[in-house]
Specification:
single chain, alpha/beta, Molybdenum Cofactor Biosythetic Enzyme, Chain A, 5 helices
Length: 150
């Protein structure tokens, strides 16, 4: 399975992307292929364009960052704008599981959806949360992608 990682942050650089690093490591450990790893600023139009671009070469695009409640957290809006359909159960499961780690999970506005045959899932911006959420998501990834490509 081919996965891409998109880090959304106006304050990080490619050399300072700990959450992207955590996802890349988790993807490799799961035996999946990392097809792309990008970083984009907290700008809705830029996020939308990058999601569309990455979706063409990946079965799943994982985003990290921009899912909170600050004014520049626009990842959920950008994701929903490009998706054909929402997959709310994924976001619900990630939030529910994350509550066992921190009550701040209630502040997550992360979403998941499909763009053609690509699954797009928003993850939090911290490395620890990325590792936790990937572990929750990983058992359903192959089935989800198989369903999208049926």
């Amino acid at each position: 399975m081919r996965l891409a990682v998109l880090t959304i942050s106006s304050s990080r650089s490619a050399g300072d992307d700990a959450s992207g690093d955590a996802l890349a490591e988790a993807i490799a450990a799961a035996g999946f292929e990392l097809t792309a790893r990008e970083l984009v600023a907290d700008d809705r139009a830029s996020i939308e364009a990058k999601l569309k671009s990455l979706a063409g070469g990946a079965d799943c695009v994982l985003t990290t960052g921009g899912t909170g409640i600050t004014a520049d957290d626009v990842t959920p809006e950008a994701t929903l704008a490009v998706c054909d359909r929402e997959v709310p159960g994924i976001a619900e499961a990630l939030r529910a599981s994350s509550l066992s780690e921190t009550p701040m999970a209630m502040l997550s506005r992360a979403v998941a959806g499909t763009l053609g045959t690509t699954l797009i899932v928003n993850l939090p911006g911290s490395p620890k949360a990325c590792r936790h959420c990937f572990a929750v998501l990983e058992p359903v990834l192959e089935h989800a992608v198989a369903q999208l490509n049926r």
